[in-house]
Design a protein that fits this description.
about 350 residues; alpha+beta; single chain; disordered C terminus; about 25% strand
């Protein structure tokens, strides 16, 4: 058996059904073009992890049916269907069984088009469900390889929150930045009224030599922020990356968002580079944190920027309860839990 797979339940038999889950994220902290270990340019990103929303998949194998006889519910989850078919071929080869068809069922509460990794969440959940039906557990690098084949680029959700610089078009880790990001409290919001962003319609900008040097400097600063637990330095990196992203996204609220961040004493802002979700970042150790968060929510409301949710990036932190927090665009853009992309 290859190192990339191991039995999920030794001796459990050949159960034809399996389940899988994958989280989402809250956009990027850093995204750009970086140099890999061989000095080659690679598009890369660092995502902001978020607990809660995600995708759940159930896969039932149909032994004896042709591999093309694979259905997905809902029927429009075409990337997840491709991922399931690729995972069937992979797992069948690993176990010495003939590939077959089956049925994939997805449920997801990740908003579509906001840059939170909804399609990658679907794809990873599907791959994990197929592997589970074969009683295999695929290693993250194997899952990433299948995810890139299914959707051409993917987010590092298979790594379950570890801070990494990830080459999204190649499905590989360029650098492990450390065990965990500095703790943050994030006031989430949606720009552009929460309207989904068509990432394929965005213009492609080639990075210049100077641009790559700038991204590498941000990478170095983010590495230092993780190593020292410096939320303020992380916020500076995220804000600089978000500002560069505006060359493509051009959110009209960006100036207001950064002004609010400065006024309420946040450490910076982060924005999905392929969507509309954004966050005002706070150091949880800052004095008067609750007052700062409430002031931020009032300011967002005054500028017509809908707040989504306030959440910590670490465990065991009390939730914020306030009348300003609401999820208008999450309600309108989330997929039905019973019916199950960015």
């Amino acid at each position: 058996m290859t190192p990339a797979a191991r039995p999920a339940a030794p001796g459990a038999g050949d159960a034809p059904a399996g389940t899988g889950h994958a989280p989402c994220h809250h956009g990027e902290i850093l995204q750009g073009v970086f140099l890999d270990g061989d000095g080659r340019r690679c598009a890369g990103l660092v995502t902001l992890p978020m607990a809660g929303p995600g995708s759940h998949a159930e896969f039932v194998r149909r032994p004896g049916t042709p591999p093309g006889a694979l259905t997905v519910v809902p029927a429009d989850r075409t990337k997840a269907a491709r991922a399931a078919a690729l995972a069937v071929a992979e797992c069948a080869e690993r176990t010495g069984r003939p590939p077959c068809g089956g049925e994939l069922r997805l449920t997801c509460d990740v908003p579509v088009g906001l840059g939170m990794g909804s399609s990658t969440s679907d794809v990873i959940a599907a791959v994990r469900a197929v592997a589970d039906s074969y009683r295999l557990r695929l290693a993250p690098d194997a899952v990433a390889r299948l995810a890139v084949r299914a959707e051409l680029a993917c987010d590092p959700l298979m790594l379950d929150g570890r801070p990494v610089l990830f080459a999204q078009r190649e499905g590989r880790v360029l650098e492990v930045l450390g065990p965990a990001l500095p703790p943050l409290v994030v006031v989430g919001c949606a720009l552009g009224g929460g309207a989904p962003v068509d990432t394929l319609a965005l213009p492609v900008r080639e990075a210049t030599e100077a641009g790559v040097r700038d991204f590498e400097r941000l990478r170095t600063r983010l590495r230092r922020a993780v190593a020292t637990g410096d939320a303020h330095l992380l916020g500076q990196v995220a804000t600089a990356s978000a500002r560069r992203g505006q060359q493509v996204l051009g959110h009209p609220e960006f100036g207001a968002l950064t002004a609010i961040s400065r006024r309420v004493g946040a450490v910076g802002v982060q924005i999905a580079h392929s969507g509309a979700v954004a966050g005002v970042l706070f150091d949880p150790a800052a004095p008067g944190l609750r007052h700062r968060v409430r002031s931020c929510l009032r300011a967002l409301d005054a500028h017509g920027i809908p707040a989504t949710r306030t959440f910590p990036t670490f465990g065991n932190f009390p939730a914020f309860h306030h009348h300003h927090q609401r999820d208008p665009e999450w309600t309108s853009t989330s997929r039905s839990r019973s019916a199950g992309r960015t």
